[in-house]
## 1
Amino acid sequence: MARDSTFGVLWCRLLHFEGTERYANYLDAFASDSTMQGLQDSIEASFPLAKDPAKSLEKGFAWLHRNMPSIGIPRIYFINGGFNAPCMMDTAMLGIALECFLGQKSTYYEKLQIPQYLRRQMDPKRIAPAAITGWLEGMYMPMGSMRTVLDNMLYQGKLFYIARQALPQLPEHVVLGFSKEELEWLEASEGSMWRYLSEKEVIFDSNPLIVTQFTGPGPFTRAFGNDSPGRAAVWLGYRIVESYFKANPSASIERIYFSSDSQQLLAKAKYAPK
């Protein structure tokens, strides 16, 4: 990457050097730091050229290009981001910080005391799903209509669904970011979770704390018990979106992605878990 490249500026944004004209000097300082050099060694050991992580992304973005043509396809860069964020993006560029995907047992994550439920997202197999969903979030997030639990679970459920369609070669639990055991729990508890949310009208709650409780990351979803995974309601959102496309097979996935009418989507999904 050229030191004066457009991506260099974007990289500096991730490293909090945005707005400076001397960004190349800061990148040099970052690259020469002994801690970052050690981290770079770990990245190169985990991702040798023979295991180029770009290979798993090609089919996913090709699917997006075919099925969602208004979503641009980015130029992808793999970087050492210094544990600032797993992905960063601009209108035509996507940077993937490989230090965020070294595997759950990475000694770096142990030293940083990253909780186990977050480490699950830091597996090399999660690069492609994280890139797809991260890019989609960057392209469109209907902030003005993301008020209720239902709004949030369906928006994130759409991201899950699109990633699942774009990456059919990956196991479902990998794409969705759950363990096999968590996915089994969700499938067994689908009906009871939905009854709780709908009968108590939790889906229409707009209290930010309640929204986060059901759709934000965490070791579990408190209302569903300690055995439940975090973001359990997002998985229900995924199932609702899945039900919608089964009931409406000719629907445009691109149009549904940009739609912010959560109640209409729910009604047309004919979602009725047992």
Note: DSSP finds 14 helices and three strands in the chain.
## 2
Amino acid sequence: MPTPFGAMLEAHALARPAHPALAMPGADIGYPELIRRVRRCAAQLAREGCRTPGSVGVAVDDDLGNIVASLALLALGVPQIALPASDPMPMRRQLARRLSLAHVVVDDARAGVDGIDTIVLAPVAVDGSAPAPPVAPVLVDPDAPAMYATSSGTTGVPKLFAHSQRTVGSRASQIALAQGFAPDERVMVTMAVPTHLGKMARLNALWCGATAILPGTPSPSAPSLIELCESLRVTYLQMTVLQARNLLLGFDGTRRLPPFTRVFLGAARMPPGFPRAFESRVGGRVFDRYGTTEVNLIATTWPAGDEGVPDAVGRPAPGTLVEIVGDDGATCPPETIGEIRVRSDGMASGYLDDPVATARHFRGGWFYPGDVGAVTRDGVLRYLGRKDDMMILNGINIFPAEIERVLEEHPAVGTAAAFPIPSSIYGDIPVAAVELNGRVPADAPMLVAYSRERLGVRAPRKIVVVDALPRNAAGKVVKRALAEMLALRRSGG
């Protein structure tokens, strides 16, 4: 029988009562105090009707209040979904309708969703100064939905799936093992707490008895982020590649990351040489992470780094099986490029109300994220991009990552994005857009010649220099927007 989340908090409180569960600028909250806050919050939510089986949306903007409310719902056994008030209202309404939410928990009544009962957290509900009645652990069905999550959908409608109490715990344990959590780990994540990924990163730390950092601002500047890592003694810093790139660009050299801070990146491909450039200027040790919301962490370069392998995202996480398969579904030998498929005990089993996407991504006990890669003979996973992004030029398969890697090795290029222009004669004509870093002069014709020398027929036929590549909230380049921009330029619009 798996352990309920509340029981894990109780165990940490008994074993290390003085150990901080949460750390914020100017204040620490120990596990006993966190439990008191969770109990008071659970009492209010229960009084106001939060009971199984009805699901609840969490739209609490305050970091501490959001964590406490989510833990309270886990303690009550009530399924929940992150419903950040910063998200567009149509998206929030759609998710609320799809899950038939019974309530939305907020700390500001304006964050509610029309037509759904709103529960406004009372300040006393998250106050840990007074005793609170215990909440009986709820684990009637450990495999029932506990936390819903979303993943991007090709139609613009998010794919929706559930984590159970069992998978919440197993995922947290897997991440701790895969990334070497120490007993006194202090975890800071730059993603906002009200988002699902930002919340889960903190809950993972709490499950493992670590200290979750609440920095007070979702996007601190480079100097303030380094200051937070020093003052809050952050040992584990998780960022997106875009955030790390901006930190590097904004670094003024006056203060480096402390030597005890390890940096884990994800959400986008790292440019060649980025870890070494970051470490030499900003400090810390940089490691890559590759994963999906459906599966959890799939691979990481901790502790060995990229091991000299181009496009490496590391070795599979404990308990995760990774294979490369061909178009016929057969397993490919080492070094062969093919589609990545993954199997893990903590992965989702399908999408809610989307049988087409479920059939596409979940097959035979495997999850197919739609990515292309290869595994070296030594077991290192290489990530080469999305399967849908592969270009076929006159029968030649060209992966955007190979073009991007070559361009980003040029001293003038900061970031590159390769994508196809369709042709009725040739198939996909590879082109690229680049951001220059300003260190050395370069222009598009120079970069075309440079890439042609190194890639031959796989080189982009056209390169466009842009001030900034279009990116989504996770920092990933939106190649569809680039293709539209290039088409507009060609038409003279």
Note: Residues 50 and 306 are 47 Å apart (CA to CA).
## 3
Amino acid sequence: MDRRRRSNRDMNQATPDRADGSARTPERVALQLRMLEMVSRSPSSAAAMRAFAQGYLVLHRIDVMVRAVVHGLDGGAYRVARYADIPALVAGRQRIDGANSTSLSEVLRGGFIGSTIEGGVPRRFDDLRLGGDPVLGDLAPRLRSAVALPIFLDGAVHHWSFYFRPEPGAFDDQSLEDALLTGNLIVGAASRLSLLDEVRSLNAALEREFEDVAAVQRSLLPQPIPRIPGLGIAARYLTSRRAGGDYYDVLPLPDGTALAIVADVSGHGAGAATVVAMLHAVLHGRESWRDPATAPGPAEALAVLNEELSRRPIGGNFITAFAARWNPSERRLDHATAGHPAPLRRGLDGRVRALDAAGGLPLAIERETSYEEASTALAPGELVVAYTDGISEARDDAGRLFGVDRLALVLGAAPPHPEAALDAILGAVSEFSSRAARADDQTLLALAPLR
């Protein structure tokens, strides 16, 4: 019984001091855990090295620290950074990268550091005499013990770390092993964090570029939508996390009709946004369309866009599109599709049907492509809604699609007014998607004859 009590009591007490002056106590273990926590949470390589240095130097009572960089230098050559003010380093007033250390920029050779590096193996020194050393001579009275540690990066020694104490015999073999392993592990972690810093910086730059591209893309949309005689129009455009390829436009034509288009470029990012800009340029730059005698119908408009985009290098993208021409005198909508989902028509009875899917292939697949055209007479109170697949293919947390059937149900229950109907659709999509991130642009265009 006495032996068991004595054993339990001893487990809660410090073990005998080691040669480096440290003792294994609960307080030291707590400090080590805190150091590791701070290193793991460090947002950058510099912060990780600072956290490690502060914790390690408190734990091990180092008097002077020297880093001798050998990477990129001939054998035996080195560059030195000295850290003599360890309390300043621990307090964070001096940086581990050497910016505020006593630094020698020139390449050195020889001396205690040079001869140790040439030896090529980690060592401890119990009774140093360093008077006259070219790097450490002025500190010689303070330096009697040391450990020398090669620090590896990418399979080769990058630099050597030297820890000095003022008393002889301050380090033992266990101290040397601990310092060697710990130093290399923390430098490896800091190197990975440095790469992460670069990745974060590049990602931030890319995000800024995507935001700029998205802003340019939004500027191509009609703002405000032109007023078209006899036609109520509403539109909604929600971007995904990246610049996308959705586009809509409404162009008054010189014969009193109007051309409306909804398009979706395959893919995402700057490439898709660039194709949107090209689509906009072709649509607005066609001189012949300014003549009432040659104002285009939807099938002709799609054929022209296809021909122009097919002979341009657009990186393998293709474009689905819906085009419609509103004739106010006849209250007739002529329309055609290029591989695009057929718009939905909400009748006076509230029933929802798809428009005739007249059309052809998506744009920019085959240069010689023609498109079929259909006509639909619309009465006041009816509503046509064109959409991109970001609406129908929105997903909930379980990965289920919103779908065309659900879209039709929402449209059938919505008020028969363009603005209210689109708000109802987006509200239903948002509720369905819940916390799921928007993976694609979501675009809606509603057309409704006025009384």
Note: DSSP finds eleven helices and 17 strands in the chain.
## 4
Amino acid sequence: MKQPESNPLRKELARSQQAGAHPDCDVLSAFAEGSLLARERESVLAHLALCTQCREVLHIATDAAPELGAEAQLKTQPK
């Protein structure tokens, strides 16, 4: 059985869905605090949808400051 990593379609899909430039730490902090403008927030959300690394950074940051995590979770949950 082939491994998923060897599947050319999976490789191409992963390549086509690159997250692009990472937001800097100030932008991620502002996102966690809920202080970004709507268009900035949408941009960060789109990036986070594709970028495991930034999701992990945000997760670690919100674990370190639980009050930020609650704020970020409220801001990112669909209404």
Note: The radius of gyration is 15 Å.
